[in-house]
């Protein structure tokens, strides 16, 4: 089952992650709090603001995939074990090029947290555990947020993605209003205190901003610009390929532009946006003839241990 809103959100998250990774992969020295707009735009709008969305969507996709294979096998958790297991060597290989990559961590946390959680009936306890784990991890931040966000996403899938997307426009506006006010207040606090992403205020601000982004995208998908936002959906469907390819493209761009030599957020953001546009164009062209992206197809073949048809003909 493909849900356009979920694919758009995944493509949107990949956009932000690509910009952030352009800074991280090139090793560009991040300027200090006294260096102005570029630094704070990076810290309050991008850094640690899209990673929570990506993590939430991973847990959501786990639930959707697990539900989807129920009718195809007598051992859906064994299939998911293989799916997560094969992500480990892929993540380990990717980490040679991108030391901060998340696939390896996602695979391990998925095995340790999501697979056991799939034995819990219903959605309430899973969501509660996810909320508590996320709140507790806010004191540390970084990858410690992943288990809780995974569970929140999985709990949302158990509750029903279509039911969540079917919430009234008024309710979604209320969610956007609350999370938006929190995001502005917390980001202002972060700037006022002059603290970067490792602090508790920055972590909480990141979570609030991520939630506001999600609510805004879902709300905008109900407006006239739905068609324009829908352009992100193909990249959302090939997010694994896009995430991996972005690393190579950023490294290649850095060899030419030497982005990592000095703090230049304009250059980094422009490069990241260019890489994203290349990914977006590739996803559109590829999916005209294929059902899955290149790495998505290979991952699916490994999961089922057979060649999965990928053509549209």
Short recap of the structure:
Helices cover 72% and strands 0% of the residues.
Average of pLDDT: 92
- Helical percentage: over 70%
- Based on the structure, what is the oligomeric state of the protein chains? single chain
**What percentage of the residues does DSSP assign to strands (E)?**
under 5%
What is the radius of gyration?
A: 19 Å
For the largest beta-sheet, the strand count, sense and barrel status come to: none
In N-to-C order, the SSE pattern is HHHHHHHHHHHHHHH
The DSSP helix count reads: 15
Q: Name the shape in a single word.
A: globular
Organism: Actinomadura luteofluorescens
Domain DUF418: 167-306
Transmembrane segments: 12-30, 50-66, 103-123, 135-157, 202-221, 228-253, 265-287
Protein name: Putative membrane protein YeiB
Structure description:
Residues 167-306 form the DUF418 domain. The two termini are 19 Å apart. With 313 residues, this protein is mainly α. The mean pLDDT is 92. The chain has helices at residues 4-26, 37-46, 51-68, 76-95, 103-117, 124-137, 146-159, 161-165, 169-193, 200-220, 226-229, 233-237, 239-257, 265-286, 294-304. The protein has one domain (4-304). It is built from 15 helices and no strands.
Ordered list of secondary-structure elements with their pairings:
Blueprint: H1 4-26, H2 37-46, H3 51-68, H4 76-95, H5 103-117, H6 124-137, H7 146-159, H8 161-165, H9 169-193, H10 200-220, H11 226-229, H12 233-237, H13 239-257, H14 265-286, H15 294-304
InterPro entries: Bact_Transport_Assoc, DUF418
Pfam families: DUF418 (PF04235)
Protein name: Putative membrane protein YeiB
